[in-house]
Write a structure and sequence with these properties.
single chain
């Protein structure tokens, strides 16, 4: 079997994408895919930082008992 994505596999995928979407739409699709991946990574980072912020805020906002 070997590697999953060999260079020839990538060439075939590129040719099929070119045939389906055409050369004028590929840059827009690439840009959209890149923005989606970037947003996903920021979302993952945001979840981790918001959990820490909530823990930190929870310790500050607890009322004192007199």
């Amino acid at each position: 079997m070997g590697d999953l994505l060999q260079p020839w596999h990538l060439v075939v995928i590129l040719v099929v994408a070119l045939l389906i979407f055409g050369p004028s739409k590929l840059p827009g699709l690439g840009k959209g895919l890149g923005e989606g991946i970037k947003g996903f990574k920021e979302g993952i980072k945001g979840i981790g930082s918001s959990d820490e912020a909530e823990k930190h805020d929870a310790t500050k906002t607890t009322p004192e008992v007199k």
